[in-house]
Automatic annotation (TrEMBL):
Entries under InterPro entries matching the protein: ArgoL1, Argonaute_N, PAZ_dom, PAZ_dom_sf, Piwi, Piwi_ago-like, RNaseH-like_sf, RNaseH_sf
Gene3D superfamilies (UniProt xref): 3.40.50.2300, paz domain, Ribonuclease H-like superfamily/Ribonuclease H
Protein name in UniProt: Piwi-domain-containing protein
Transmembrane parts of this sequence: none
Region described as Disordered: 1-20
GO molecular function terms noted in the UniProt entry: RNA binding
Organism classification: Eukaryota, Fungi, Dikarya, Basidiomycota, Agaricomycotina
Length: 849
């Protein structure tokens, strides 16, 4: 039998029947009446004497809006424009070239040349086609409906953030200071979503992190804790230089004079001593050399207060001192959130909304103030009618698995359990005859170590009560680690300062790659007031890192179906470089279970071209983890349940076909290999391939008064599954909310079954997915996605941070973030990065927790 051959999306199975039926409220709004008019699609081309100027979304919307106002006899219906190349009308208009009108002062100029707009009809959709194609998932029709619905808010909200994420409309009046020059803004998300029950509109609350608007010097002083502007009189050799350059690159600014009327420019770089920068100014007779300081004094009567401070430059090379610059509000943060201070906590406090508050804000979002479904001309002209009340759909609550420990079991109906009250012992405790504690802080950590030791023993671990203790600093970290390596400890506990990324990296590289010794890092701010709960959580991590098993779920799908034949559960993910990070690869990670409880995992990881959707070396990686499975049990799995994270719907078929082909290549290699004839694969495993989605905006809310199905946090109880009405008309999919959630509104995970050779029913798939959310080793609660997917995600981050040998990378690591090529992936030497990638030999210990 030939397995792992993709023949299109798996056929939808009948909805599941397991669990108690109930109704839940969703953040979707039914399209009660579909568009009744025909629609005409036009290509938009803005030109100046045949050339194409750069026109942003904001300006594009204004040009098209003014054009329609200036020629009402031509534009007899309002067009829905995406700000780029597409506009849709509910009536046919003549194709042709039109003079653009920017404002009441006359034709707009781009470098002194008149702008023209060329409109060319490219398609027509009848009213019947719109409904049919939308339900079939035809992206061009769905895009048209998205643009029609977004047109009025597009005109209302034109912040830079909206230019980057046109599905979210951020509002400045709803913001909160985070510190370090950053703000959190709340916005409204909307998207057209075809479902089995018809077209719906998904509306949600979204939070964006923005740069603080206003004068640029204040932003820099807040971000880099600078007390005096004179401290910005720095050169390229300053440690702050590269940090400021990276922080400012791509930021939109204006500058004095006339900053209100000036068109925003993008910062392309920074220069030292901007006021003293010499440029060539056009003169009446001949060009003259002039400093920036002199230019502003003579031309604009502006005396620079800090001529020796840094300045910014745009792509044209224009240099502007920072004291004249203003940052446009509403620009999304491009890089990672700073890890210092309490920014993360402030952001979570702002973003997390209790379910009933979130639902109320969503209802308010469709009001005339924001999305205006009931009043927008564009919606009315289309003939669409949208329900202004959120939909209620049918759901079920799955029975929760019991959690088995050493000598005891516990019910998990609320999605969490306690290891200390009553005291429970882990399912398979590890041993640590000798261990080492290293403190990189000056505070007394003895009480924490003593309490941790008590928790380790209470959980059943056999550990020495006399660990070696070492006091260290960041400067002597490696000599200290080298010294304790000779003692061959079972694990090393490292107590770090609050901000100690460099020490953590050193400890992890030493333990994972150099010595194969498990390490557990704890920050002093956590240790200082540590309680039993925190120490128990640390102890659970240590047990898993030593090779122990903390607990196993007891459910029929796990104890019967999963163990009937050898089965491997696989989690796969790709971790991409952060926004703005260049010259660095993506990391693909694979984890595979090697025991009947799906609690022990082996792994494989590879570097690959940045931001590629598919796993490029999947065949080699699958071969590695299949060999590990055989090495432990002397058989290969007969079934593989492959959970894939991080694939967008538009890439489903492409990625599934490519990756199943590579999985099949791994099978063929193992079936034909001659190095170990006794280890040949004699029977090809059957494969089920499931995409797990987290980045979506569907939410479920308990119905008012339904106390039985409402958790303490106000969310739906864990185990909620929706597999009809709300699901796709094209794919075999379901939503599962497996966690109760501690704060905010819980997000369900979205499962799409693209390939199934194991004839799994909806009930089997849903029960297995839910059970696998209960085996995450360092949690005493169910998690939001199946554990192997969670592990793959963690492994991507861990490998990317700690497993590349900087000595091998050399200049490739030093030049990180410096490239200016239009295709950064072309500058990444993937072969070099994979050469620098070490392989941790601690499998199947969960060293990456």
């Amino acid at each position: 039998m030939t397995t792992a051959v993709y023949r299109g999306p798996a056929r939808r199975q009948e909805p599941g029947r397991e669990g108690a039926p109930l109704g839940v409220v969703t953040n979707t709004f039914k399209v009660l009446r579909v568009p009744r008019a025909d629609w005409y699609h036009y290509d938009v081309f803005v030109k100046t004497d045949g050339k194409t100027p750069t026109i942003g979304r904001r300006r594009g919307h204004q040009l098209i809006y003014n054009l329609q106002l200036s020629q009402p006899q031509v534009f007899t219906s309002q067009g829905a424009y995406d700000g780029k190349k597409n506009i849709y009308f509910s009536r046919s208009i003549p194709s042709g070239v039109y003079d653009a009108v920017e404002d009441e002062r006359g034709p707009p100029q781009a470098g002194g040349v008149k702008l023209q707009i060329k409109l060319t009809q490219v398609a027509k959709f009848s009213a019947q086609d719109v409904v049919k194609y939308a339900q079939e998932g035809k992206q061009d029709v769905i895009n048209m409906l998205q643009i029609v619905l977004r047109q009025l808010p597009n005109i209302k909200f034109h912040t830079p953030a909206h230019q980057r994420n046109y599905r979210v409309f951020y509002m400045e009046e709803n913001k909160s200071e985070l510190g370090l020059g950053l703000e959190a803004w709340r916005g409204i998300f909307q998207s057209v979503r075809p479902t089995l029950a018809g077209l719906t509109i998904n509306v949600d609350i979204s939070t964006g992190v923005m740069y603080r608007g206003g004068d640029l010097p204040t932003l820099l002083m807040q971000r880099f804790d600078i007390r005096n502007l004179r401290h910005l009189e720095l050169g390229k050799d300053s440690p702050l230089w590269s940090k400021i350059r990276q922080f400012l690159r791509g930021l939109l600014i204006t500058w004095r004079p006339n900053q209100e009327r000036r068109r925003p420019e993008v910062i392309d770089g920074i220069v030292e001593r901007a006021g003293l920068f010499v440029f060539e100014k056009k003169g009446e007779v001949a060009p003259e050399q002039m400093t920036v300081e002199t230019y502003y004094k003579q031309t604009h009567n502006i005396q620079l207060a800090y001529p020796r401070s840094i300045g910014v430059k745009n792509k044209k090379g224009t240099v502007v001192p920072i004291e004249l610059c203003f940052v446009l509000p509403g620009q999304l943060l491009k890089g990672k959130l700073p890890e210092v201070g309490d920014i993360s906590r402030k952001l979570l406090d702002f973003a997390n909304r209790k379910p009933h508050l979130r639902l109320n804000e969503i209802k308010a979002g469709i009001s005339p103030k924001t999305l205006s479904y009931g009043e927008a001309n564009f919606v009315r002209e289309s003939g669409m009618q949208i329900d202004l009340e959120p939909s209620t759909v049918g759901a079920r609550r799955l029975p929760a698995p019991r959690i088995r420990f050493h000598g005891s079991e516990v019910e998990t109906n609320t999605g969490s359990w306690n290891m200390a009250r009553p005291q429970r012992m882990v399912f398979q405790p590890a041993t640590a005859p000798h261990w080492v504690a290293i403190s990189f802080v000056q505070q007394d950590v003895t009480p924490f170590i003593r309490l941790l030791l008590q928790c380790l023993r209470a959980l059943g671990l056999t550990v020495s009560d006399n660990p070696t203790f070492q006091q260290a600093t960041g400067q002597n970290a490696m000599p200290t680690l080298s010294k304790v390596a000779g003692e061959k400890p079972s694990f090393v506990l490292a107590i770090l300062p609050e901000s100690a990324a460099e020490i953590r990296t050193l400890v992890k590289q030493w333990g994972d790659m150099m010595q194969t010794i498990p390490t557990q890092c704890c920050r002093i701010d956590k240790c200082r007031n540590a309680n039993n709960q925190y120490c128990n959580n640390v102890a659970l991590k240590i047990n898993a890192k030593l090779g122990g098993v903390n607990s196993v779920p007891q459910a029929p799908v796990m104890s019967e179906w999963l163990v009937r034949v050898p089965t491997m559960v696989v989690g796969a993910d790709i971790g991409h470089p952060g926004p703005g990070v260049q010259n660095r690869p993506s990391v693909a990670a694979l984890v595979g279970s090697v025991d009947q409880h799906a609690s022990r995992y082996t792994y494989a990881a590879r570097a690959q071209k940045p931001r590629q959707e598919r796993i490029e070396d999947l065949a080699v990686m699958m071969t590695e983890i299949l060999k590990d499975f055989w090495g432990r049990s002397r058989v290969y799995p007969e079934r593989i349940i492959f959970f894939r994270d991080g694939v967008s719907e538009g890439e489903f078929d492409k990625v599934a076909q490519a990756e199943l082909e590579q999985i099949r290549s791994a099978f063929n290699y193992l079936a034909a290999q001659e190095e170990e004839p006794h280890a040949k694969m004699k029977k090809m495993p059957t494969v089920t391939y499931i995409v797990v989605g987290k980045r979506h905006h569907i939410r479920f809310f308990p119905r008012q008064g339904d106390q039985m199905n409402t958790s303490k946090s106000g969310n739906c109880q864990p185990g909620l599954v929706v597999d009809s009405e709300m699901t796709s008309p094209i794919y075999f999919d379901y939503f599962l909310q497996s966690q109760a959630g501690l704060q905010g509104t819980s997000r369900p995970s979205h499962y799409t079954v693209l390939h199934d050779e194991n004839s799994m029913t909806s009930d089997m798939l849903q029960a297995l997915s839910f059970a696998l959310c209960h085996v995450y080793a360092s949690a005493t609660s169910s998690v939001s996605i199946p554990t192997p997917v969670y592990y793959a995600d963690k492994l991507c981050a861990h490998v990317g941070a700690y497993h590349f040998n900087p000595g091998v990378l050399g200049s490739a690591l030093a030049s990180e973030g410096a490239t200016t090529t239009s295709n950064p992936e072309d500058s990444v030497d993937v072969a070099l990065w994979n050469k620098a990638l070490g392989r941790c030999k601690m499998r199947p210990k969960l060293f990456f927790l």
